[in-house]
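Translate sequence into structure tokens.
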Amino acid sequence: MTRAALWLASILLVVGNARADQPIAAWNLQEPATIQWRPAESLPPGAQVAVLEGDPAKEGFFTMRLKMPDGYRVPAHWHTTQERVTVLSGTLNLGSGSTFDAAATKALRAGTYSSMPPKMVHYGWMTGETVLQLSTMGPWTITYVNPADDPRKKE
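Result follows.
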């Protein structure tokens, strides 16, 4: 058989295996005005979260957004999985280490992408209203260096 015949046979085999009765995945389209924001319970008061795809509490891929007001601070913490963040608007001033030091942060402006390894201790503060998009693998957890900073443990 010639190469062309082998190539054509391969294409026909792939196309032939696609069945018309198989369900097609739904289109997940979320325009800014329709995104459902709610308080982000794992962050200090004032932050909002919107889950766009998947479930951050379960294994597997998910995408969520975090919206925080100007001057908002996130105390030193870490995650059990890789954290992949894109700054959509505003500025995330990101620092690493267990002690919050605003002067030691790096300004991540809109359009910046950051990927931090599991258990990297970091903290941040926002310049302007800031929206971040996290697209990574779950389950997503947050562990504060100082347990007193965890809003889930406050009454």
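Note: Confidence is low (pLDDT under 50) at residues 8-18.
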